[in-house]
Amino acid sequence: MNNKVLLGCALCFTAFPSFSDVNISGFTSINAGKVLSGTGVPQFGIDEPTFLADYPIVSVYNEDITFKPESLFGLQVTADVGEGLSATAQIVARGADDFNAEFEWAYLSYEVNENWTIQAGKKRLPLFYYSDFYDVGYAYVWMRAPADNYTWQIFNYNGVNALYSGSIGDWSLSGNIYMGREDDKENKLLSDFFFNAQTREIWKDILGGVIQTSNDWLEIRATAMTYTNQRYIDGEPSMWDGKDERDGNFYGLAVNADFGNFFILSELNRLDLDGNLDTAMLTLGYRIDSFTPFVSYSTFDQKDGDDGENHNTTSVGVRWDFHSNAAFKIQYDEVEDNSFSLAVAGDSKAITIGVDMVF
C-alpha cells in the first residue's frame, strides 16, 4: 500500500457522515539516532556496529545518523454505526518499511452489554502490557518499548476476541479472551537477521487470555497464550524432532506502581517452546514538572544446549512534555550480546532522539 492510500482511506471514511459517527485520530514519531560504538556480528555477515532498536519491524541503526529506522505516521479511524456496532482501522507507515502504509488493525466491535464487547478481524496480539499501543510512542516514557522484552517475530493476529470491563470495589477489572492465527509469508526479523533467507512464519490455533486490575497506584496484568508454530525457509519446512510443527506456551506478568512523581514499570515473560525463553524489563522514573528522567534494564535469555540467545540492554533517558500533545525524548542504550551462533546484532552503544505526537 502506498502513501496515497493512507490519505484516501481517511477521506473515504469521512465521506459518509449520515450513516455513521466517524472519529479520526493519529500519531507520529520523528526519531533520529546513530551507533556510537559496537562489535557487529561477523559470523552473520554484520561487520559494522549495529543497534537493533525494534525487533519485530527490524529498526536498525548504524554509525551514520538516520531518521528512517523508527520514524512513523499512523491514522486510526473508528466508525460507530449505532446499536453497539462499530468498525476500527489503523494504518501505519514506517520508515523501516520505506514508509509503505499497511493496515495494522481492521476489526468490527459489537457491545453486547455494559461489560462485554465482541470483536473480530485483524488486531495486535496482546502478549505484553504495551502491545495495544506499541506504535504510539507518546503513550510511554521510553523512545521505544524495551527491545529485549518486546522481541517476538509475530505481533498481529486474525481472529475473534471477547473484552470484559468492570470493577470490584476500588479496583477496576478488565479481561480479554482471544483466538485466531497469523501467517506472515515473509517474516522480516527471521528473514533478515536469523536465517538470511525468505522465512514464512505461521502461528496457528492461537488461544489466549488477559486479565488486568488496578487501583489508584498499583496495576497488575497477567496473560497466557498457547499456539502451534510452523516455519518455512526458502519454501522448505523447518523440522523439530522430526515434526514440521511445534507447540508453544506463553506466560506474562506486568506490575506497575505509581507513587505520584516516582513510578516503577516491570514485566516478566516466559515462552515454553523447545525449552524456556525468558524476558524481563524493569524501569524506574521520576517526574519533575514536564521532565521525566528514567533508567531501564531489559534482558532476553534462551538456552540452546551449550549456546543460546542472550542479550540485555541498559537505557538512560529523559522525556520532556513540551506540549499537551507532544513529547521530546532522548535516550542512550548500551546492549550486551552474550550469544554466539544465535547472536542478533552484537554489542553496541547508541543514542537516539525524537518527538512523539498524537492528534
What does this structure look like?
This protein has a single domain, classed as Porin (Beta Barrel). The longest helix is centred in the N-terminal third of the chain and has 11 residues, at 3-13. A hairpin with a 4-residue loop joins strand 6 and strand 7. The strands form two sheets. The protein has a 16-stranded antiparallel beta barrel with strand order 1-4-5-6-7-8-9-10-11-13-14-15-16-17-18-19. It has a two-stranded antiparallel ribbon with strand order 2-3. The protein has two helices and 19 strands. The chain is mainly beta and 359 residues long. Residues 1-20 form the signal peptide. Keywords: Signal.
Quick synopsis:
The protein is built from 2 helices and 19 strands. By secondary structure, the chain is mostly beta strands. The N terminus is likely disordered.
Note the main attributes of this structure.
single chain, 359 residues, mainly beta, Porin, 16-stranded antiparallel β-barrel, 2 helices, globular, disordered N terminus, signal, Porin domain-containing protein
Measured on Cα atoms, how large is the radius of gyration?
A: 21 Å
Mean pLDDT, to the nearest integer, reads 92
Helix-strand category = mainly beta
* Silhouette: globular
CATH homology group: Porin
Largest sheet, in brief, is: 16 strands, antiparallel, barrel
Total beta strands? 19
Number of domains: 1
Strand coverage percent: over 45%
Q: What is the tally of helical segments?
A: 2
Oligomer: single chain
Order of neighbouring strands in the sheet with most strands: 1-4-5-6-7-8-9-10-11-13-14-15-16-17-18-19
Order of helices and strands: HEEEEEEEEEHEEEEEEEEEE
Terminal Cα span: 23 Å
Protein name: Porin domain-containing protein
Keywords: Signal
Signal peptide: 1-20
GO molecular function, one term: porin activity
